[in-house]
User: Which sequence fits this backbone?
């Protein structure tokens, strides 16, 4: 399956992506994870994007398209992919469309997780992320077995720098202004599947009926 996951930060895109990946062997591609890895490794790219990410602002379309043009042509993408956090703006959506046409590929659907704002804020302020493998935890609903330690890889679990209250407010505003218009874009493309939940069974049902 080639699927775009749409929805505000905290909607559950990463969790749904991981579950779908386990289901059919597609690879999850998270632009946020790619950028966070660059920041942790202290690369040129990381230095370029760090301040914008911490404030909850988007990095440039050119930079993201440079990364994704390469990534989508790697071997593991042949099995299918789940795009998590990309595209994030109309220019990125247009550029992705052009790239896929060039590669002779087609998306199966754009899955929107349409989650209410109060649920999002609660989830983001209680979310914790593994610094190494990106596994997501929640202090209330999914704590790790040992506090602060990832169940999967044993690395440290932290609250992300962009999950302070002011950065969250900003990220939601950025989503509404720059990313929410993609819902209409993919509706017009005939690709939109919208679900009011990140419950996996409901999501799978909706994808199956679309495909
Ligand atoms: P995420 O983990 O998807 O919430 O992304 C974290 C941060 O990485 C965002 O707030 C942006 O600063 C940056 N980012 C991730 N994906 C994109 C994208 N497609 N376009 C622009 N910035 C992005």
Assistant:
């Amino acid at each position: 399956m080639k699927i775009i996951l749409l929805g505000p930060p905290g909607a559950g895109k990463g969790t749904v992506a991981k579950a779908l990946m386990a289901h059919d062997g597609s690879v999850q591609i998270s632009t946020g994870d790619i950028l966070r890895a660059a920041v942790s490794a202290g690369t040129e790219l990381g230095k370029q994007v760090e301040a914008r990410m911490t404030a909850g602002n988007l990095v440039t379309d050119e930079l993201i398209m440079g990364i994704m043009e390469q990534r989508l042509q790697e071997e593991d993408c042949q099995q299918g992919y789940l795009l998590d956090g990309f595209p994030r703006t109309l220019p990125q959506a247009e550029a992705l469309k052009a790239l896929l046409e060039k590669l002779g590929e087609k998306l199966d659907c754009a899955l929107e997780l349409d989650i209410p704002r109060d649920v999002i804020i609660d989830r983001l302020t209680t979310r914790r992320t593994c610094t190494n493998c990106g596994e997501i935890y929640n202090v209330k609903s999914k704590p790790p077995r040992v506090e602060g330690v990832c169940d999967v890889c044993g690395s440290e679990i932290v609250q992300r720098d962009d999950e302070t209250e002011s950065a969250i407010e900003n990220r939601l505003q950025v989503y509404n202004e720059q990313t929410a218009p993609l819902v209409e874009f993919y509706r017009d493309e005939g690709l939109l599947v919208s679900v009011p939940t990140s419950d996996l069974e409901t999501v799978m049902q909706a994808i199956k009926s679309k495909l």
